[in-house]
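Lab meeting, item 3. Inverse folding demo.
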C-alpha cells in the first residue's frame, strides 16, 4: 500500500478509510487530515466544526495514531515512510526509470525491474496475506552485491537469480549493481 506514494501523477486510486467512506483520488495518504497529537480534537484548533472528522475508531484513535507519537518512534509507519521518501529522493531510478515486469513464479507478488542511466533496481511486493517464496532472474551483467535499500541488508544471488521469501505484504527495493 505504501507504493501508492510512488505512482505516476494522474493515476486514480480507490482507497478505504476506517470510517467506511471510499475515497477516489491519487493522494489518498497525503490528502487526509493527520491527527497531530493525542486528545479529543487530535491537535486541531478549537473551532465550531472541522472539515474532516477525527478518526475515533480503534486502533486509529488520536491516542494511538498521531504525528507527535509516531515521529518519536523509529519503528513507526511515519518513520518508515520518511525513510522510503529519502531512498526515493536519492535514487532517481524509482521515479524516472524504465519499467519491465519480471516473472517471479507467483501472481501474488508484483515484481519489476526499474532501470535508468547506470542504476537498476528490482522491486518486489507481496500483495497477499501469506508468505511467498519468489525466485527472479537477474539481468545477465550483474556483478557485485545486491543490497536492499530499505534495510541495508545484502541479498544473495545464485546462478543469475535471486531467491527469497517475502512475508505478508512485505516489499523489497533491491539495488542491482
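The presenter then showed the designed sequence:
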Amino acid at each position: 500500500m505504501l507504493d501508492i506514494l510512488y505512482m505516476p501523477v494522474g493515476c486514480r486510486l480507490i482507497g478505504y478509510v476506517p470510517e467506511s467512506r471510499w475515497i477516489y483520488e491519487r493522494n489518498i495518504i497525503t490528502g487526509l487530515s493527520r491527527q497531530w497529537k493525542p486528545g479529543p480534537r487530535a491537535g486541531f484548533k478549537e473551532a465550531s466544526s472541522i472539515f474532516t472528522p477525527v478518526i475515533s475508531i480503534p486502533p486509529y484513535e488520536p491516542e494511538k495514531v498521531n504525528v507527535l507519537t509516531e515521529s518519536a518512534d523509529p519503528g513507526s509507519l511515519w518513520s518508515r515512510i520518511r525513510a522510503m521518501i529519502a531512498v526515493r529522493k536519492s535514487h532517481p531510478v524509482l521515479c524516472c526509470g524504465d519499467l519491465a515486469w519480471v516473472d517471479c513464479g507467483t501472481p501474488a507478488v508484483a515484481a519489476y525491474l526499474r532501470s535508468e542511466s547506470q542504476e537498476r533496481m528490482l522491486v518486489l511486493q507481496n500483495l497477499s496475506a501469506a508468505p511467498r517464496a519468489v525466485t527472479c532472474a537477474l539481468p545477465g551483467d550483474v556483478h557485485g552485491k545486491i543490497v536492499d535499500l530499505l534495510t541495508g541488508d545484502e541479498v544473495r544471488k545464485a546462478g543469475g537469480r535471486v531467491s527469497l521469501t517475502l512475508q505478508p505484504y512485505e516489499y523489497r527495493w533491491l539495488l542491482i549493481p
